[in-house]
Structure formats: C-alpha cells, structure tokens
Amino acid sequence: MTALLVKAMADLRRRKLQAAVIFITTLLAAGTGTMTLSLLAQTRDPWQAAFDAQRGAHLRVNFDSRTAVAALAGTASHLGATAFSGPYSATAVQFQSGANKYNVTAIGRDNPGGDVSQLRITGGRWPKGSGEIALTRSFADLNHISIGERLKVLSVPDQPVLTLTGEVVDINALRADVGGVQNAWVPSSAVAALTGRGTSLYLMDYRFAGNPTSAQLQAHLHALRGALPPGGVTSTVDYIFARTVFHISTLILTGVLVAFSVFALLATAAIVANLVTGIVISGYREIGIMKAVGFTPLQVVGVFVLQVAIPAAAACVVGIPAGTVLSQPLLASNSQALGLAYEPSFSPTLDLLALAGALGIVIIAALIPAFRAGLLKPAVVIANATAPRGQSGRWLRRLADRARLPRPAVLGLGEAAARPARGVLTLLAIFLGVATVVVALGETRSFNEIYTYEAHSGSVDVVVMRSPALSDADTARLISSQPETARVVAETNANISVPGIADPVATLGFRGDSAALGYYVVGGRWFNGPGEVVAPRSLVQDAHLKIGDSFKGAVQGTPVTLRVVGEVYDFTGGPGGHLLMIDSSTIAAAAPDLAPSTYRVTLKPRSNVNAYVRRLAAAQPDLLDVQANGTGNTSFLTVIGGVLFAIAAIIALIAAAGVFNTLLLNTRERLRDTATLKALGMSPRQVVGMVASSAGFLALMGGIVAVPAGVVLYRLLFDQLSLLGGSPTPAPFYDVFAPWELVAIPLGGVMVAVAAAVIPGRWAARTNVVEVLHAE
Amino acid sequence: MNTELVRLTDVTKVYQGGITGALNGVSVTVEEGEFTAIMGPSGSGKSTMLNLVAGLDRPTSGSVFVRGTDLAKEGEAGLATFRRDHIGFVFQFFNLLPNLTALENVLLPAQLKGNTAKVRAGELLDRLGIAEVADRYPARLSGGQQQRVAMARALVNKPTLLLADEPTGALDTQSGEHVMDLVAQLHREGQTVLLVTHDAKLATRHAERVISVIDGRIVDDARLESPERAPSEVIRVRGEEAAR
Prior knowledge:
The complex is a heterodimer of chains A (776) and B (244).
Chain A: H1 2-14, H2 16-41, H3 45-53, E1 59-64, H4 69-73, H5 75-79, E2 83-97, E3 100-108, E4 120-124, E5 132-136, H6 137-142, E6 150-153, E7 161-169, E8 182-186, H7 191-194, E9 200-207, H8 214-227, E10 233-238, H9 239-246, H10 248-282, H11 284-292, H12 297-337, H13 348-375, H14 378-383, H15 394-402, H16 407-416, H17 420-454, E11 462-466, H18 472-480, E12 485-497, E13 505-511, E14 521-524, E15 532-535, H19 537-542, E16 550-555, E17 558-568, E18 579-583, H20 584-590, E19 598-603, H21 609-619, E20 624-628, H22 635-669, H23 671-679, H24 684-725, H25 731-734, H26 739-756, H27 758-765, H28 769-775
Parallel strand pairs in A: 3-8, 5-7, 13-18, 15-17
Antiparallel strand pairs in A: 1-9, 1-10, 2-3, 2-6, 2-9, 4-7, 5-8, 6-7, 11-19, 11-20, 12-13, 12-16, 12-19, 14-17, 15-18, 16-17
Chain B: E1 4-13, E2 23-31, E3 35-39, H1 46-54, E4 61-66, E5 69-70, H2 76-86, E6 87-90, H3 102-112, H4 118-127, H5 143-155, E7 161-165, H6 173-188, E8 192-197, H7 200-206, E9 209-214, E10 217-223, H8 231-243
Parallel strand pairs in B: 3-8, 3-9, 6-7, 7-8
Antiparallel strand pairs in B: 1-2, 1-4, 4-5, 9-10
Helix pairs in contact in B: 3-5, 5-6, 7-8
C-alpha cells in the first residue's frame, strides 16, 4: 500500500494540472449534487414539522353563512374527524396600508391555541380588543406591514381602523408570495362590525387519525355534503394542497436540479474517464516499468485510481459542505415563512451519501481505463509510442480539405477525431453543458411567459378592485366615464359545485369582452353566453366530462346547468387546476348577491397609464384599489431563474474544463508531432489555430446535437410542471427561442471552447523543438 | 563565383544547467551549392550546429546568418516562415506524422505556406521511388521508405538548404546507401546540403567538404575534392582528434 501511495502521490505532484481539473469538476458536481439532495430531502420536513407541532388541520372547510351553527357542530362526526376547531365566524375584508389596499379573510377567533390548527405567534401578541388584528407573517413580510401599523378597513361604510398587534403562522394558509387570499384574525366579537353585505362565512378546521389521503378526504367531504343543505359547503382546502403550494418553488426547482445534477455528474465522469485514459496512454512506458519492477496488475490499477480519488476526495471535502451551505437560503426561506427559527441543517447521512455518490462515480469512471493499464504487457508497452496512429480522423481531414480550410485547421479537425473514445467523451461533456444552458434559458423564459400571460400583460393596462362598500354599478360607471377607457372586463368570484369534484370549484364569472383577455383555448372554443363554461383540462378530466357535455352544478345551493364548450390553459387554479370560467350572467342568475369585484381595464392607444391610475384612485381613494397591470411580485420567478442559471453556469464550466482537459491530453500526446510541425515551418499562430480548431470543432458538434436535445428536454421538464396547473402547455409558451439564438448558443459554446484552447494552444506553440525531438 | 549561404561567427551554445558548452566559439561559413558534412562523435555539438542553422535553437552568443538573414533578429513566427521557405530538414528518426499518409506528410510544408504542390509532391514521390506507397500511413512503411518520404517532405518547398541529421542512423546499410545516393544526386543538381553524421566513411564518400567537430569545437575543415586533402587523411585526422 505504501508503494501505491508513494507512486500515486508522486504522479499527482507531476500532474498538477490534471489533478486540478479533477478537483474542479468534482467540486462543482459534488456541490450541485449535495444542494439538490439537501433540497429533495427537506422538501417536506419543515412544513411537516410545523404541521405536526401546530396540530394543523387536515381539512379546512368554509360554510355558507346561512348554515345553522348547531348543524356545524355536528359536522365533525359526519366527517369522521378525530378533532376539530370552530366554527369561526369570518368575513372578507379590504384594508389600506400606506397607498396599497389588500383583501383578507378576517376570522373571529379569541385565542391562537386549541386542539386543531394552532396559530404560532412569531411577533407581537394575539389581538384582544375590537380595534386589533393579526396577520400571517408571510403576508406582513411580503407587503412590509409592521406590528403597530394602523390599517384602515375600506370594506364597510364605517371604515374602522385596526392596529396590527401580531404576526402569526397558519400552517393551513397558502404562502403569500405564491398567491391566494390570506387570513387575518380579530376577536370573535369584532367580526360583525367588519362584515359587509354578503361577505360572511363560517370556517372550521378538522383533524383525522393519521395523515389521510386525498381520496379519503374526498370521501369524508362527500358524506358531509350529504348531511348539509345544498350549497352549505362553499369551499375547502386540504393539507395536501396547502403543502404542495407551500413547496411549489422547491418542487419546480428540485425537478430541474435533479436533471442538472445528473448532468454534472455525467460530465465529470466523462472528463475523468478521458483524463485517466490519457494518463494511461501517455504513461505506457512507465506502466511497463512499474510492472517490470514488481507492481501487480491490481496495484497498477490502484495507482491510477488513487491519482483520481485523492483530488476527488479533496473536492468532496470542499464541495459537499459548500453545496449544503448554498441550499440553506432556500430552506431558510421555507422555515421563515413558517415562522420557524432558521436553523442551518446538516445531515451527516446526506453528506455521506453525496460523498459516496460523487466518489463512486469518479472512481468507476477511472476504473475502466485503469484496468486497461493493469492488463498491459510490460514488453509491449515499454516499446509503444503514445500518439495515435492510423486512420482515425482521416475522413474529417478529407472533408476539411475539400472545404479548403487552412492546413492547421485541417490538422486540428483530424486531431479532434484521432481518438474516437476521447472525442465522444468530450462531446458528451459539451453536450451536457450546452443542453443545460438551453434548459435553464427555456424554463426561465417560459415561466416569465406564463407570468405575463396570467397577468394579462399586453391585453390589460389597469386592474381595479372595489371595496364591498362601493357598488358594482357605481364602480363600472366610474371606470367607463374615464375618457381613456377602451374596454372593461369585470370578474366575479364564486364557487360552483361540479359533479365528481369534491370541493366547490373556484369560478371566474366574466362580464364584458372576456375573449379579449387572451386566454389560450387548447380545445373547443371560448364561451359565448350564459350556461357555457370553459375550464382547464384537468377539471374536465377529473369530472369525467368532455367538450360538449352538460352537467348540473350549484352556485350557493342554487342549481345551474352548464355546458363545457372549451378547455383553457391556466395556472390560477393552482396545483390540480380546478377552475371554471363562465359568463357572469350565469352566476348572477343563480346568486344575485354575488357581483364583480375586480375590473380589468384596457386603455385606448397612447393613453398615460399612470395618470389614469392616479385619477381613478383619487376618485374613490378609500373604496377602490387601482394598480397598473403587471406590477406584481416576481421574486418567486427571480429565485428560480437565479438558481437555474447558476447551476447551468457550473455545468457549462465543467464542460469547458472537459474541453480543456482533452486539449491538454491531445497536446501532450502530440508533443513530438507538434515539434516536427514547427521544424517544418508551422508558426506559433498556426499551432494555436490548430489546437483551437480542434476545440471549436468538438464544441460545434456537441452544440449542434445539444441544442435540439436541450429543447426537447426543456419541453419534457416544462410539461411536467405544466401538469401541476392541469393542462398541457400550449405551443406559444414553448416558442421562447429566436432562431438566431438557437444558432448563437452552439456558437457561444465554440467561443468558450476556443477560449479554453488558448492555454494548451500556447503551450503547444512554445514547444521546444530541439528538446522534444532530442528526448525522443 | 560561389555565394556564401550560411555564416556562423564565434557561436557558443550552453544548454541550461550545462557546465561545458555544446558549442564553443565556432565560426564557419557554407557556400551555396556545397555538400558539407559535419562529422563528430556523439555529444560533440554537430546536431546543435544544425539546429542553429535551421533556426530551431538560438545561440548563447555569436551570430548565425543564413542567406544574409540574422536569425537572432527573427521572432518565433519569423523563424517558422524562414524554415518553411528556405530549409528542408531530414531527421534521423524520420518524424513523419503518424496519422497522415505518406502523400499528406509530403504536402504538409507546402500547405503550411498556403500552396497545394500536388504536382511537385507527385514528382518527388516518383523520383524517390515511393509513389506506390503514397496513400499508406507511416506505420505501414519500411524505415527506408519512411526516410524517403521525409526527404520528399523536406524538398517539397524547394528549400535553399537541405539539412540532414544522421539520415541513415535508423536505417539498415542498404537503405542508408540508397538514401545517401539520393542526397548526392540532389547535390549534383545544385542543392546545398548540410549533413550531420558520425560515420566518417559516409561523410567522405558523398560530401565535398567535411567539418570535424569535437567537444563543441571545429577541429578540422577539409575540402575533399581539393588536391591537398584526401578522404583517408580526413578519417585519420578525425581519429587522432577523437583519441586525445
């Protein structure tokens, strides 16, 4: 063993550059892999821990305010729940903080404890008086609302002012940064004063034995609905949905990160295999001598594996902690949203797994060429030369000749294919690097496209939300009276029960030219009038419907007959994609008290949006929230884009290291040939050109294959993410690359490869002809 | 009247870490059309002289002029162009590029200049008797064939000066003689040749001038066709110097 170690260490000292290549590539791959493992392993942990600690509700149900309180008390037994809390009286409230207006559901609750759905106070105290309120921590953080701030309620005529006394974590609430109306808490006696017409509801939380499945929860709900009058249950949220929404960014990231980590490890394996093969080839004579002095074949294998394992292990020692540290901010944001203290988490098991994985792959990659070295016969290898001989690469030289390329370029191209296995492994590394860049670019752009689409950017200029204290008619009149107003589409929010779907389905009722909002109809057509409905494919499938089918639903218990006329692409339904879009007259006929609350306004061309927003807001400063469209929070997309590009850059760097490594091996092996070429009159610039053309060719080939492959992979990954929204992705969201970009990406790869060729190229150009040929 | 082609003036070459010089104050001229052999034992500095003339190496001191060009003033790129234009180099171990065919090897120096030279290459291969192996890779050629390919490669750009460093050193006797006959024939056609060899018989049989080098110094410079020196005398002088 000592001899092995001494020889391996001596070789490492001699091959510092190769050791550095192994170190850097393994470092990057181990770091990426560890980051992914950390995120994967902890995707559920913080939420689940908080859910268990706070005795989170497996099911939260909103009931119509007309339901008898006595009947609500018996709902736990209908559901088979083991514990419950509520009923809590609640109401929709709009309040103003600074210049902004917010909508929340104010829940009357006198303490944060109880058997189910305990609220964790992370700042301040629980509201005690009628002028006090508590908000969720994620909502307060996102909107920069501080404890002690006074919030003016706009949704009731009296416009009471509430003081924010506490920030809490409600484990059943959806993350504020992902979306959804947030909850707020006031003393139960304060709810009545905050309740406007038609805004009240009851809310109850239930826990079941163990962690019920989605199907089990739906069965329980079915039983509950049967026991209540029609329309009694207005909406529900189960813990699986809340958890999925909470982890949505982590889920999106981990899917792509897993793919990227596999890429990074594969690229590293290709580089290591290439490198060890190169060392074996250039060390033929030395291998012969080792065997001649008594090294057994296995010991020879051991020397080569140690040469790789030592720098790889050193890289893991640095890379694994670095990956763990880099994963912490994302995990910390999860913990913070839950109101948990940020405790950096280090899992020795996970780190060992990452170490075993990274080292294992690197060693396996080294073993194959190392075994080749072990099996070589001493007499043969001592006499063997190192540079490749024969016809490999000849076809390529011929092609280049026909293209009348300069001779150094022709020789460089031939060199790229002189060792086919090395060429293929290098191409693999380049392929992975370029494909990753394509995937990262595509995913990020598609996310942005979807964000733009969901925000109706381009078709809507201003979004107006009214307080319940201002009537729909007055709001509509005010908007229409503005000279710049070209089109108004008003939205009514409702819930409609659909046969075969357990929860009432969130419904958007449109008044006005809703087709102009630009929803993508992926099947059938947009609705044309009352009774017609469009929905994402997942709802249509889950309800066992198809385009053209009619079904009987209910709005607030009033039956309605609806006909499915089209399928739309939409993410606003959240994971699962249950959403209906309908003409608002259908809702108004069944539930006259439901009126539009949001107005999407399109202005005439060349109108001043900011002036319009200021003027309209000034007309009803307390009762209207007027915003220019598309100014929402995009931090969620920024984080995803940032992480994707950081990892894509890492893999691209690994690929560049792969090219550098191959050129280094080729240059060293061809030292004698280069010396001869110089003796024949090849200038230093021509030598650099020869090496660079070899690199450029490999990069071009890798890029040409990688771009379409990357596009296909990005589409596959994005399809998986789209399914969370319930519909396949329509073609326009894929159309995120301009044709010139698809050409520029591989050309960019060529430029990186040529840059990576500069050092080996200059090194070759400086070859001392006399020394090399004399040494031969 | 002959024109001076090569001039070495007080040239010294000391390799890094070397205690004694590979060349110590050598001064010599070579005229156009001459066939000069530089003769000496292993390590005497004869190959160093050839490398300096080819611009492959630089002297520690002194100057090297070829065709009136001071090689010390040329950069790496300038020396490459100089070699490409004026020098044909034949090595002891051929130094053919193993992944190029014989023809491709021959064409290489011309292609580096941007020329095609296919006709010239074909003529050379014909003349050297290796046209039938033009498409073969070096690994499939005999030593003699490889050296003839190397000679064709050296001649393809019609060099001013043909440098040959032990061109028969890696060949059997018959192949060696064949190669030397070719060199002599080229010389008769006007080619200036500078041959390095340790073989006195070879040198005196073909060269018209033999420069003997020992320990980095020129110990003898004989013109063999002149009445004052005969080949046997050159061999004797070299033997005496070597024995010191």
